[in-house]
Structure formats: structure tokens, C-alpha cells
Design brief:
With about 260 residues, the chain is of the alpha+beta class. It has two domains: about 80 residues, Immunoglobulin-like (Sandwich); about 170 residues, Glucose Permease (Domain IIA) (Distorted Sandwich). Strands 8, 11, 12, 13, 14, 15, 16, 17, 18 and 19 form a ten-stranded antiparallel sheet that branches. A three-stranded mixed sheet has the order 1-6-5. It has a three-stranded antiparallel sheet with strand order 2-4-3. β14 and β15 form a beta hairpin. The longest helix has 19 residues. It is globular, with a radius of gyration of 20 Å.
Length: about 260
């Protein structure tokens, strides 16, 4: 009887060990042999070429903040279990015109959102980068990704990026090589830069005081792209840094930590 119990416990342990666990709003990154991926008859996930090892493919799987607790079956047979993260909440005071935009500004917000979504849907095939991602600046983090937010005690949302403390005029650097696809002033994000890194991976830099690049520019990792500021819907000067993968906003610092494990 004891032997059966031990065997059962080992089977259960093996089952859970074979599962990959990821929190909502985070990223799963896997590396597999390219030949094995090519053998798959059906692929429901997107596998992209490894930036340095030509015989390897990588899976960058973004898990939406709104994802429910469930299990996913990957192309390579692995199982991913999604669980609900323990995100904090915060209250923020902003200018009332930003908290409750008038009809004209609501139309502007929609137009800017539609424009951005069209850009995100038409990403570059292949990748521009072959080195690890870096933080856009070295500074204290003042607001983490995923925090539930209440603007002026009324507007509820969640924080789709990470805020770095930054006095106006602090240099902002590209997290990795890519092509600039947005460089303009927007109602909520203020002076904004968005970089396409290829294969649906974008980095975002919001609330700047000055933009140093233009749409179409190719930028290198660590290149100066903007200066921090307090434009858009803000409570004070800072840098909002975000990462979007295949249309899904994810924790940018978690993404950097995970993607850099492939190097």
C-alpha cells in the first residue's frame, strides 16, 4: 500500500513539474530546436528565429492581464498554467480635463488608439535585435505594471507599463534596436515614442518633454531617443515604459528578464 502511495505522489509531482506556470500580465519565453518546430504539423503559437543561434527557435507568449486562470497546451506538448497575480492598487490625481475628456478629446483619443492599433497589427517580419534588452534608464520605479488605478476617484483601469522616476529632461534610451513607428504628441500618452523590434514586439516611452527621433528612423540599443517630461495624463514628471507583444500589453521588466535568458 505504501509503495502505491509513493508511486502516486511521484506521478503527481511529475505532472506538476511538467507544467509551466505563468502569471497574468507576464510573458513565457521558450527555446526549442528549429528542426523540431518545423516537424510540427500544426502550430497555434508563433515561433521566431533565435537572434544568435540559427538552429534554435523561440516562443514569446504574452499572457494578457485579463486572462483567466486556465491551462494552455503548447505546440511542443508542454502545458502552461495561468494563475491570477497579486497586483496592487493605487489612487492618482490628474488634471480634470485629462480624467474626463470632452467629446472633442474623446474623438482624438479614439483616433490615436485606432492609429496605434493599426501600426501594431502591421509589424515587421523578422527581428532587428541580436543583443539583450535593457532598461530605458536607471532610476527608481514609482509604479509597477498591473496596479489597479483610480484616477481622481472615478476612472478605473490598470497600469499597462512601468513608471520610472525622472525629472524633466532626463535622457531616455532605446531598450533595443528597432524602427521608430510612433513619434508624436498624444492626448493621454503625451510626447510618445514607440519602437518596432520586429515580430510583433514593441517598446513604448510616454510622457516625454522632447522627442529626439522621427518615424522611420532605425535606432540602436542604448541610443538616445527622448527626454523625460510630464506631458499627457500624468500626476508629475516620470517615464512610462511599456512592452507590447502581438497586441498584448505585458509587464516590461518581466519581459526583459525572460527574453534575456536566451542569450
Amino acid at each position: 500500500m505504501m509503495k502505491k502511495i509513493v508511486l502516486l505522489m511521484l506521478c503527481v509531482a511529475k505532472l506538476f513539474a511538467s507544467e509551466l506556470i505563468v502569471e497574468n500580465g507576464k510573458t513565457l519565453v521558450l527555446v526549442e530546436d528549429s528542426n523540431e518546430i518545423r516537424k510540427l504539423k500544426e502550430k497555434s503559437q508563433i515561433w521566431i528565429p533565435h537572434p544568435q543561434e540559427k538552429d534554435k527557435s523561440i516562443l514569446v507568449l504574452p499572457i494578457s492581464y485579463y486572462a483567466k486562470e486556465r491551462k494552455l497546451h503548447l505546440d511542443n506538448g508542454k502545458i502552461v498554467r495561468i494563475y491570477k497575480g497579486n497586483y496592487k492598487s493605487e489612487q492618482i490625481s490628474v488634471d480634470s480635463s485629462k480624467a474626463k475628456p470632452n467629446p472633442k478629446n474623446q474623438a482624438r483619443i479614439k483616433q490615436e488608439r485606432d492609429e496605434a492599433n493599426k501600426i501594431y497589427a502591421n509589424y515587421t517580419k523578422g527581428i532587428y535585435w541580436d543583443k539583450p534588452f535593457i532598461y530605458p534608464m536607471e532610476s527608481k520605479i514609482t509604479s509597477e505594471f498591473g496596479n489597479a488605478r483610480l484616477f481622481n476617484q472615478e476612472i478605473k483601469s490598470y497600469h499597462s507599463g512601468t513608471d520610472f522616476r525622472a525629472a524633466i529632461g532626463t535622457p531616455i534610451y532605446a531598450s533595443n534596436s528597432g524602427k521608430v513607428v510612433i513619434a508624436k504628441d498624444r492626448f493621454l500618452a503625451g510626447q510618445s515614442v514607440v519602437i518596432d523590434h520586429g515580430e510583433g514586439i514593441f517598446s513604448m516611452y510616454y510622457h516625454c518633454s522632447e522627442i529626439k527621433v522621427k518615424v522611420g528612423d532605425r535606432v540602436e540599443r542604448g541610443e538616445l531617443i527622448a527626454l523625460s517630461g510630464n506631458s499627457g495624463r500624468v500626476s508629475g514628471p516620470h517615464l512610462h515604459f511599456g512592452i507590447l507583444v502581438r497586441g498584448v500589453q505585458i509587464d516590461p521588466l518581466d519581459f526583459i528578464a525572460k527574453i534575456n535568458t536566451i542569450f
